[in-house]
Amino acid sequence: MECVGNCPAKAIRIEGWTVTAEEVLNEVEKEAVFYRDNIGGVTISGREPLDQGDFLLALLREAKKHRIGTAMETSGFGHYDVLKQAALMLDTIFYDIKSLNDKKHRKWTGQSNALIIENFQKLCKDYPELPIIVRTSIISGFNDSDEEIGQIRSFLQNRYNVTFETLPCHHFGMGKYIALGRKYSYFSCKMTNHSIHLQS
To answer: Is 128 a residue whose pLDDT tops 90?
Structure first.
């Protein structure tokens, strides 16, 4: 990061810093009074936790040592061995499923949904008691049809540890698109939010 100090216009800056799992838990412990008696804990999110498998697992191990509740938000797009190990130390997983239509998923995200679906199925099989909350952000023109959401609901049916939530999309990323000089195409969002527990 020498470029930061050498930039004559001071236009480059460091966002974030490197920490250890123990340092993170030291910060979390400052609010420990709120985590006791299973009424709170730490949720690992931001970008994709599975991309930093070693750190993720180290952080979860430290949390369990401190008897802190654990949750993770994931797209499921990562190595299943990391997800499988993490699940042993997680109390809840928030799992993002945008669409079951692979062609549409590729067009809108640039990636196939095959790994996401495969990892989800393995997770449900290996951990049938682990609470999993599947979240789908409703995006106009992408997945805002009854057919699209119905496909996801049908896929999740009879998985008794799974709850399904639809979420309203937001425009928090608009400023980043503008800063990068890119077109922001998601101006219209269907505002809906509900939760369904999938039991027959």
So the answer is: yes
